[in-house]
Amino acid sequence: MLQWHYAWFKVAWTTLSEKAFQQFFEDIMVRSDPTFCPVAPAGPQGDRKSDGYQTSNHTNYQVYAPETPLTTAPTCKKIREDFEGAKTQWPSMKRWIFVWSTPRRGLPPDAVKLIATLNSQHAGIEILQWGEEALWQIVRELPEADRNDLLRPYPGSVAATGADVAADVASLLNSVASLGASAASEDLTLTAPREKLDRNDLTAVTERIVQGALGLVPTVRRLADEHPDPEFAPRVAAALKALYIQKRQDIDDSDALFFSLVETVGATSSASDERFWAAAAIVTRAFEICDVFEP
Asked: ABC-three component systems C-terminal domain spans which residues (predicted)?
């Protein structure tokens, strides 16, 4: 179950930005420490250079998650201005933590150097940065029920979903086909899922979903191939391939990439088990015919 939650955590860490990522961070922290208090802007002073304060250890948090990859000048400016502001606004502060997220991993080197410099200049305040691994260490220690609420619970057995999945598959296929990608013209090659899982470094958590969804792949194939529009199935394939190419620019973890595709196809966090398996089956079909991931 931890591996399942880790894959979805990586999806969130990679894809959420700005207010959505800040809300994700707050949701993590309030579950981890009841003394953590989110800070909301109020009045002319705004948030007083704080995105959250932890009274148990006098820690002030600043969150930075722009939509684009972190670059040197804006990141360093953010660190310097927010730390100096927090130092003035929160005189009891003993720790200042810069929480960051980026579509591409890593802080700019000058930002890392700046944090080290600020640390050496302020002996009474511990100055840290939290990226993906630091935040995951907090999430992994949460009770399973909290991780389910924060990320998502493991779906029920595909066998228990019944015939209703076909309606979800049809609905999601129509949504994917409407994304506007040009129909694919190349021949598609069927590949054994086991071999492809290994070649793409997909772990057991993805393998279980692929194996579970394989039973629904014939439904996906039938609904796509029997659609009255002869270009329907090629449009679905082209749209999924375009989504894959777009996402792999920012997501370098294969499990997270697979689940991000499933989420985009239709398995949002509030989706039913039937809808999850329908989306997983559509992505698995594309996976099986070498339309996404390396063949």
From this structure: 168-294
User: What six digits make up the tokens of 26?
Assistant: 């707050």
pTM exceeds 0.70: yes
130-152 per-position pLDDT tens digit: 999 999 999 999 999 999 999 99
Q: Which two tokens stand for residue 165?
A: 């999945």
- Tell me the pLDDT tens digit for each residue of 66-120: 988 899 999 999 999 999 999 999 999 999 999 999 877 689 999 999 999 999 9
The residue extents of the domains of the chain are 2-150, 158-288
Token output for 132: 């993906």
For residue 221, count other CB atoms closer than 10 A to its CB: 15
Q: Does domain 2-150 have CATH number 1.20.58?
A: no
Nearest to 180 by CA among 240, 220, 222: 240
Residue 136 contacts by C-beta under 8 Å, 6 or more apart in sequence? 6, 9, 13
Contact partners, residue 185, CB within 8 Å, separation at least 6: 234
CA dihedral 215, 216, 222, 223 (to 10 degrees): 180
Q: Name the one residue in this structure whose structure tokens are 């989420």.
A: 263
